[in-house]
Design the sequence.
């Protein structure tokens, strides 16, 4: 999928968010969650505490790298309108790629987040809650599409299916050595689903 190149302001915002996540993860892995403050993370990242809260609601969100669901507007609009092909699985594949393609850029942040959760098990519940928030947002998109073109199953069921496909894609990508072309693994996961549904 081809998306517009982000402008300077968007790149600067992304760089600040990345710096905050990197700083939070380094400090928490070195000193433990309770010993690290928002002020310390902000100082390490080179931003003010006020700027920190422009990007993350809590210290936990920063150390886990939790961000809002940020899908390409054109992809979202086409999907909820019943496109781009009018067939559910091919259209779902486009949406899935929009969901996961950012993970290929800096996989080390995800690795550090899992290391933090291993060291601080109480963060697992926070992570699961974040995943549920994203699932609910995807369910809303699916419900909107259902109005334009009926889904093969209910929006709630389909939203859980999306999370399963995201996980399957990540596992394939990881097993393949984390190459840049995650679209190959999205397609393979969707093909597996089609094979199961047709069996």
Sequence:
């Amino acid at each position: 999928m081809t998306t517009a190149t982000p402008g300077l302001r968007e790149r600067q915002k992304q760089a600040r968010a990345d710096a905050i996540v990197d700083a939070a993860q380094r400090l928490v892995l070195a000193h433990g969650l309770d010993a690290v403050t928002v002020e310390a993370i902000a100082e390490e990242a080179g931003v003010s505490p006020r700027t920190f809260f422009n990007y993350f609601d809590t210290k936990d969100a920063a150390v886990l790298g939790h961000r809002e669901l940020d899908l390409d507007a054109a992809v979202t609009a086409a999907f909820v309108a019943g496109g781009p092909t009018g067939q559910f699985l091919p259209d779902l594949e486009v949406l899935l790629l929009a969901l996961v393609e950012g993970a290929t850029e800096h996989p080390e942040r995800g690795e550090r987040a899992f290391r933090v959760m291993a060291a601080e098990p109480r963060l697992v519940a926070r992570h699961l809650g974040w995943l549920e928030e994203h699932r609910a947002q995807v369910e809303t998109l699916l419900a909107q599409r259902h109005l334009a073109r009926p889904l093969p199953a209910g929006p709630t069921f389909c939203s859980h299916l999306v999370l399963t496909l995201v996980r399957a894609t990540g596992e394939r990508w990881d097993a393949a050595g984390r190459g840049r072309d995650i679209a190959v693994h999205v397609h393979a996961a969707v093909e597996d689903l089609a094979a199961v549904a047709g069996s």
